[in-house]
Amino acid sequence: MDEDRRFQNLRLLEALLFASAEPLTESQLSAYFPEGTDVPDLLRSLQGYYANRGIMLEQTNQAWAFRTAPDMAPYLRREKTTQKKLSKAAVDTLAIIAYHQPVTRAEIEEIRGVSLSKGTLDTLLEAEWIRPRGRRRSPGRPLTWGTTDAFLDHFGLESLSLLPGLEELKAAGLLDTRPAITALGERGLLGPGEESRASENEEDKLDEGEIGTLLESEFAQGESDDSGESRHSVKPWEDQDSEDSD
Protein backbone atom coordinates (compact mmCIF):
# COMPACT_ATOMS: atom_id res chain seq x y z
CA MET A 1 0.00 0.00 0.00
CA ASP A 2 1.44 3.35 -0.99
CA GLU A 3 1.85 6.06 1.61
CA ASP A 4 -0.89 8.24 0.17
CA ARG A 5 -3.46 5.42 0.30
CA ARG A 6 -2.41 4.51 3.85
CA PHE A 7 -2.70 8.14 4.95
CA GLN A 8 -6.21 8.38 3.51
CA ASN A 9 -7.21 5.14 5.25
CA LEU A 10 -5.92 6.50 8.57
CA ARG A 11 -7.98 9.66 8.06
CA LEU A 12 -11.06 7.59 7.29
CA LEU A 13 -10.52 5.42 10.34
CA GLU A 14 -10.10 8.51 12.52
CA ALA A 15 -13.30 10.04 11.13
CA LEU A 16 -15.30 6.82 11.68
CA LEU A 17 -14.23 6.50 15.30
CA PHE A 18 -14.78 10.18 16.01
CA ALA A 19 -18.28 10.24 14.48
CA SER A 20 -19.53 7.06 16.15
CA ALA A 21 -21.52 7.38 19.37
CA GLU A 22 -20.58 3.81 20.31
CA PRO A 23 -17.28 1.87 20.20
CA LEU A 24 -16.73 0.05 16.90
CA THR A 25 -15.33 -3.44 16.41
CA GLU A 26 -12.71 -4.26 13.78
CA SER A 27 -15.31 -6.08 11.68
CA GLN A 28 -17.59 -3.03 11.74
CA LEU A 29 -14.72 -0.79 10.68
CA SER A 30 -13.61 -3.17 7.95
CA ALA A 31 -16.92 -2.66 6.12
CA TYR A 32 -15.79 0.88 5.20
CA PHE A 33 -12.46 -0.16 3.65
CA PRO A 34 -11.48 -2.00 0.46
CA GLU A 35 -11.14 -5.75 0.83
CA GLY A 36 -7.73 -6.75 2.12
CA THR A 37 -7.12 -3.58 4.12
CA ASP A 38 -5.18 -4.33 7.32
CA VAL A 39 -7.55 -2.57 9.74
CA PRO A 40 -5.80 -3.89 12.92
CA ASP A 41 -2.51 -2.36 11.68
CA LEU A 42 -4.26 0.95 11.00
CA LEU A 43 -5.76 0.91 14.50
CA ARG A 44 -2.37 0.33 16.12
CA SER A 45 -0.86 3.17 14.08
CA LEU A 46 -3.68 5.53 15.01
CA GLN A 47 -3.40 4.49 18.66
CA GLY A 48 0.29 5.32 18.63
CA TYR A 49 -0.39 8.71 17.07
CA TYR A 50 -2.79 9.62 19.90
CA ALA A 51 -0.54 8.32 22.70
CA ASN A 52 0.21 10.99 25.34
CA ARG A 53 -2.37 13.38 23.89
CA GLY A 54 -5.54 14.85 25.40
CA ILE A 55 -7.63 12.08 23.84
CA MET A 56 -6.61 8.47 23.39
CA LEU A 57 -7.71 5.55 21.23
CA GLU A 58 -8.64 2.68 23.52
CA GLN A 59 -9.85 -0.87 23.01
CA THR A 60 -12.53 -2.27 25.30
CA ASN A 61 -14.17 -5.66 24.78
CA GLN A 62 -12.90 -5.96 21.21
CA ALA A 63 -14.27 -2.52 20.30
CA TRP A 64 -12.40 0.74 19.72
CA ALA A 65 -13.29 4.31 20.71
CA PHE A 66 -11.74 7.67 21.51
CA ARG A 67 -11.63 8.48 25.21
CA THR A 68 -10.38 11.42 27.26
CA ALA A 69 -6.93 10.80 28.69
CA PRO A 70 -7.34 9.72 32.35
CA ASP A 71 -4.81 12.26 33.64
CA MET A 72 -6.90 15.07 32.17
CA ALA A 73 -9.93 14.29 34.35
CA PRO A 74 -9.02 16.68 37.22
CA TYR A 75 -8.66 19.57 34.75
CA LEU A 76 -12.02 18.89 33.11
CA ARG A 77 -13.99 18.71 36.35
CA ARG A 78 -15.89 21.87 37.21
CA GLU A 79 -17.40 22.46 40.62
CA LYS A 80 -20.21 24.89 41.20
CA THR A 81 -21.45 25.99 44.58
CA THR A 82 -25.16 26.67 44.79
CA GLN A 83 -26.89 28.36 47.68
CA LYS A 84 -30.26 27.04 48.79
CA LYS A 85 -32.44 29.27 50.92
CA LEU A 86 -33.97 27.55 53.91
CA SER A 87 -37.75 27.57 54.17
CA LYS A 88 -39.39 29.45 57.04
CA ALA A 89 -40.31 26.12 58.62
CA ALA A 90 -36.68 24.95 58.49
CA VAL A 91 -35.42 28.18 60.09
CA ASP A 92 -38.01 27.92 62.87
CA THR A 93 -37.20 24.25 63.44
CA LEU A 94 -33.46 24.92 63.59
CA ALA A 95 -34.02 27.69 66.15
CA ILE A 96 -36.16 25.44 68.32
CA ILE A 97 -33.59 22.62 68.22
CA ALA A 98 -30.77 25.05 69.01
CA TYR A 99 -32.50 26.50 72.10
CA HIS A 100 -34.30 23.41 73.40
CA GLN A 101 -32.00 20.52 72.53
CA PRO A 102 -32.30 17.67 72.96
CA VAL A 103 -35.85 17.99 71.64
CA THR A 104 -38.22 15.50 70.03
CA ARG A 105 -40.25 15.96 66.88
CA ALA A 106 -43.48 16.19 68.88
CA GLU A 107 -41.97 18.92 71.07
CA ILE A 108 -40.94 20.89 67.98
CA GLU A 109 -44.49 20.66 66.66
CA GLU A 110 -45.88 21.73 70.05
CA ILE A 111 -43.69 24.84 70.10
CA ARG A 112 -44.42 25.79 66.47
CA GLY A 113 -48.11 25.05 66.77
CA VAL A 114 -48.22 23.23 63.43
CA SER A 115 -47.24 19.82 62.12
CA LEU A 116 -43.65 19.48 60.97
CA SER A 117 -43.06 18.47 57.36
CA LYS A 118 -40.99 15.31 57.08
CA GLY A 119 -38.66 17.03 54.60
CA THR A 120 -37.68 19.78 57.04
CA LEU A 121 -35.48 17.60 59.22
CA ASP A 122 -34.01 16.02 56.08
CA THR A 123 -32.92 19.46 54.88
CA LEU A 124 -31.24 20.32 58.18
CA LEU A 125 -29.55 16.92 58.23
CA GLU A 126 -28.27 17.45 54.70
CA ALA A 127 -26.76 20.76 55.81
CA GLU A 128 -25.16 18.84 58.72
CA TRP A 129 -26.56 21.33 61.23
CA ILE A 130 -28.50 18.79 63.31
CA ARG A 131 -27.94 15.20 64.40
CA PRO A 132 -29.73 12.53 66.47
CA ARG A 133 -28.87 12.88 70.13
CA GLY A 134 -30.55 9.82 71.64
CA ARG A 135 -33.92 8.38 72.58
CA ARG A 136 -36.09 9.87 75.33
CA ARG A 137 -36.90 7.50 78.16
CA SER A 138 -40.62 7.95 77.73
CA PRO A 139 -43.42 5.95 76.05
CA GLY A 140 -42.54 5.32 72.43
CA ARG A 141 -38.87 6.20 73.11
CA PRO A 142 -38.98 9.18 70.70
CA LEU A 143 -35.78 10.31 68.99
CA THR A 144 -34.26 13.57 70.18
CA TRP A 145 -32.36 16.09 68.08
CA GLY A 146 -29.52 18.50 68.73
CA THR A 147 -27.18 20.79 66.80
CA THR A 148 -23.71 19.92 65.52
CA ASP A 149 -20.27 21.53 65.51
CA ALA A 150 -20.97 22.45 61.87
CA PHE A 151 -23.93 24.53 63.09
CA LEU A 152 -21.71 26.41 65.53
CA ASP A 153 -19.05 26.94 62.87
CA HIS A 154 -21.52 28.24 60.28
CA PHE A 155 -23.02 30.78 62.67
CA GLY A 156 -19.70 31.78 64.21
CA LEU A 157 -20.43 30.46 67.70
CA GLU A 158 -17.90 28.93 70.07
CA SER A 159 -20.64 27.25 72.09
CA LEU A 160 -24.41 27.21 72.50
CA SER A 161 -24.09 29.57 75.46
CA LEU A 162 -23.32 32.33 72.94
CA LEU A 163 -26.73 32.06 71.25
CA PRO A 164 -28.65 35.36 71.45
CA GLY A 165 -30.53 35.71 74.72
CA LEU A 166 -34.11 36.78 75.37
CA GLU A 167 -33.32 40.49 75.56
CA GLU A 168 -31.26 40.39 72.35
CA LEU A 169 -34.08 38.67 70.49
CA LYS A 170 -36.55 41.25 71.77
CA ALA A 171 -34.27 44.09 70.68
CA ALA A 172 -34.05 42.55 67.21
CA GLY A 173 -37.83 42.36 67.01
CA LEU A 174 -37.83 38.59 66.49
CA LEU A 175 -40.08 37.77 69.40
CA ASP A 176 -42.83 39.92 67.91
CA THR A 177 -42.67 38.61 64.34
CA ARG A 178 -41.75 34.91 64.45
CA PRO A 179 -44.20 32.58 66.23
CA ALA A 180 -41.61 29.89 66.83
CA ILE A 181 -39.11 32.37 68.28
CA THR A 182 -41.86 33.89 70.43
CA ALA A 183 -42.50 30.43 71.81
CA LEU A 184 -38.83 30.20 72.72
CA GLY A 185 -39.20 33.30 74.84
CA GLU A 186 -42.33 31.99 76.50
CA ARG A 187 -40.78 28.62 77.35
CA GLY A 188 -37.40 30.02 78.35
CA LEU A 189 -34.02 30.04 76.60
CA LEU A 190 -30.82 28.23 77.41
CA GLY A 191 -29.03 29.89 80.23
CA PRO A 192 -25.32 30.86 80.12
CA GLY A 193 -23.19 27.77 79.70
CA GLU A 194 -26.23 25.47 79.58
CA GLU A 195 -25.85 23.00 76.70
CA SER A 196 -28.92 20.84 77.27
CA ARG A 197 -32.34 20.99 78.93
CA ALA A 198 -32.51 17.25 79.49
CA SER A 199 -30.48 15.52 82.17
CA GLU A 200 -28.39 12.48 81.38
CA ASN A 201 -31.09 10.30 82.98
CA GLU A 202 -33.84 11.51 80.65
CA GLU A 203 -32.48 10.01 77.41
CA ASP A 204 -30.34 7.19 76.13
CA LYS A 205 -27.33 8.47 74.20
CA LEU A 206 -26.40 7.11 70.78
CA ASP A 207 -23.02 5.68 69.87
CA GLU A 208 -21.48 7.06 66.66
CA GLY A 209 -21.85 3.65 65.02
CA GLU A 210 -25.60 3.64 65.63
CA ILE A 211 -26.37 6.92 63.88
CA GLY A 212 -26.21 5.66 60.27
CA THR A 213 -28.51 2.72 61.00
CA LEU A 214 -30.84 4.98 62.94
CA LEU A 215 -31.15 7.53 60.13
CA GLU A 216 -31.85 4.77 57.62
CA SER A 217 -34.65 3.53 59.85
CA GLU A 218 -35.91 7.03 60.59
CA PHE A 219 -36.13 8.33 57.01
CA ALA A 220 -36.16 5.29 54.71
CA GLN A 221 -38.46 2.88 56.50
CA GLY A 222 -40.63 5.29 58.45
CA GLU A 223 -41.06 5.32 62.21
CA SER A 224 -43.82 6.08 64.68
CA ASP A 225 -43.01 9.04 66.89
CA ASP A 226 -44.53 10.07 70.19
CA SER A 227 -47.68 11.25 68.43
CA GLY A 228 -48.23 7.76 67.02
CA GLU A 229 -48.12 8.94 63.39
CA SER A 230 -46.01 7.14 60.82
CA ARG A 231 -43.15 9.07 59.19
CA HIS A 232 -41.86 8.06 55.74
CA SER A 233 -38.96 9.04 53.56
CA VAL A 234 -39.02 12.51 52.02
CA LYS A 235 -36.04 13.65 49.97
CA PRO A 236 -34.47 16.94 51.12
CA TRP A 237 -34.62 18.39 47.63
CA GLU A 238 -38.40 18.05 47.33
CA ASP A 239 -40.43 21.25 47.37
CA GLN A 240 -41.06 22.46 50.91
CA ASP A 241 -42.79 25.75 50.15
CA SER A 242 -46.21 24.20 50.66
CA GLU A 243 -45.41 22.22 53.79
CA ASP A 244 -47.41 24.48 56.08
CA SER A 245 -49.08 27.85 55.99
CA ASP A 246 -48.15 29.27 59.36
Automatic annotation (TrEMBL):
Residues 228-238 have a biased composition (Basic and acidic residues). InterPro entries: ScpB_csome_segregation, WH-like_DNA-bd_sf, WH_DNA-bd_sf. It comes from Fodinicurvata halophila. This is SMC-Scp complex subunit ScpB. Residues 186-246 are annotated as: Disordered. Residues 201-210 have a biased composition (Acidic residues). The keyword Cytoplasm applies. PANTHER family: SEGREGATION AND CONDENSATION PROTEIN B (PTHR34298). Keywords: Cell cycle, Cell division, Chromosome partition, Cytoplasm. The gene is scpB. The keyword Thylakoid does not apply. SUPFAM superfamilies: Winged helix' DNA-binding domain (SSF46785). It holds the Pfam family SMC_ScpB. Coiled coil: none annotated. Gene3D superfamilies: Winged helix-like DNA-binding domain superfamily/Winged helix DNA-binding domain.
